[in-house]
Amino acid sequence: METLKGALFAIALCGLLGATAGAEERGRRAHGGPGEPARLEGPASDLRQEIQCLNLINALNLTSEQVKKILAVADRRDEIQRQAGARIKGAEEELEALLSKLRIVLEKQTEIPDDLADRVRRVEHRAMRVREEAETELAQTGQELDTILTEGQRAVMESFKPCLIPPRDLRDPVRAGQASDSPIGETALRQVREMSESEFDRQANAIAERGLIRVTEMGKYSDEEKAKERSRLVAVMRKARAMSDVEFEVNKAALAKEFQPTNKVEDLRKQMEVARTGVGPSKAARFLLSPAGVSVLRKRARQTASAARPATARD
Amino acid sequence: MISRREFLREMMVQGASVASAALLYDAIRRALPREALAKGRLLPPIEAEYYSKEQGGAVTCGLCPRRETLAEGESGFCKSRKNIGGKLMTYASGQPCVINVDPVGKNPLGHVLPESSVFCIAHAGCNMFCKYCQNWPFSQKSPMETDNLEFREADAFQLAEAKKIPALTFTYTEGSSHIEFNKRLAHSAHRQGFRAFLCTNGYVRKEPLVDFLEAIDAVTVTIKGFTNAFYKEYTGVRDFKPVLDACKTIKEAGKWIEIATLLVPGVNDGEKEVRDIAAWIAESLGSDTPWHLERFAPQFQLANLPTTPVKTLERAREIGAQKGLKYVYLSNLAPHEGNHTYCPKCRQPVIKRLGFKLLSNSLRDGRCPHCRTKIPGIWS
Question: How many CA atoms lie within 13 A of A129 on its CB side?
């Protein structure tokens, strides 16, 4: 029941979009630039990011020493970005002047002079090189972060998915000797097994259809893809029904995974990230060194420091 | 650096998966007729062992130190044994209420086949009443009250073989309370080349325990506290000495033994009690005996208590080491260095874990790969 409540709460949160009316700041965030879709960030956006980082940092069980080291890396990153920013500024100012000249030429629809084209390319290239050098240095700090974390913590990082309400295995880890944590998929399949044949035949497609609703809202599925996914989910249910009790109990975890509707958007996004970066950037750096992550870590360091202070006479 | 938009997008995409599962579950619930939601498989009871008949149709159960005398129609404290017609009968006769495949570390067993999963099985019922029992929907019920599973031994062993599961474990509830079925199944497992493990509260008399141990390879005993006052208040047992005696019996029988203690804040987590348990393990079972210190989560009748602080667990682990115990683990807390196995000589980690999940095992023939110190356990 708790699992269902948690899941439904997550649905409600995921369905909420930030408010766009109200304060001027909110209004600015709500509307993108020309040709851009309206932004969906609201006033709770910063809080969302902080909570997601809190969930991760709570799950990692970082020592105070690790927190110090990570913050030192964050400070180094800030310095790299500051220095890179200063170098880029010079190039950008020069580029701005050149691009203004280029704009005039294009508005007049005349030939672009060779030396202007050449200078634009050179300055643009210089700015890009500064960015690339900075990104390489920043990537190295990301790898440094991976050496601060233990193997166990890196394993937690790998499986971490940002959410407001952390999944069961982070919030309430499976415990030694625990009989049942009943993930929602396993419970659902157990119920499917209880249905009479006629009831199942009537309901199977409708059940699969409802499961697809949320996922298909997050991706453009063709009718053919929807039909294929629906059939697949019904086939999983039939497979679960055909098993003996022992067979089901032994295979339930794998079946529950199979019973998850395919999230097309998430799958494609992961493929894109690997294609774009080769390996993907350091996940630890993405979260722990984000502004929200650093903010949480600094508060944590302060809390640890004040807890370690010796008691005064007044205490 | 991840932008706000990326964070928000990520959250919505992940949320879609959770939402889909919830909608599926909701649709299924609504499709079910009410009567389908209650299920129970109940086989007829079988005659129990370890009892004597008394005058007037009463019976005295000799399985656990309670040695209850039951009048006709009366059930034992364990809820699975009952006097029917002047005979002690057990309902734990082949309809388990839980079957799972778990990593062996979840038993917990840290020095036994670390790369394995085990076939876990439990009938309803237990001869203790632990106020913080995490499996109370099964342990504090009779097999007549739980939704039970149809169990076919041949199916179970066939599946275990297919999935390369090397052992079965009697766990979650009190395996010794269901000794008739479990003993038979354990012997059957041995005949078919599987191992059998037992997780027990240790509250069992010597004769049945010795019988049971013939078919058991490794045992986890939960030493829940170290005072009669604790046991009486929190488990319903007046005298915990039989638990310690059971540990010695297991050791004398040459079976592999590991000890688990759940540290409950403000209840049994005081330094003196922890020291007493550690000292007893080291003296009576040996310093090579693994000790699992488990973090408590609010549960059952102690839902008002907080989770065990990390510092309490870490301090208890230090105390265990000070008392000479070489292998002290922290359970239900991960990631933590207390999840790993360290060579007692060179202190290098030889088995690394994330909770119950094995990350790496560098033992070679049961020895530390760095200094070749033998690490005790069942490694193959």
Answer: 7
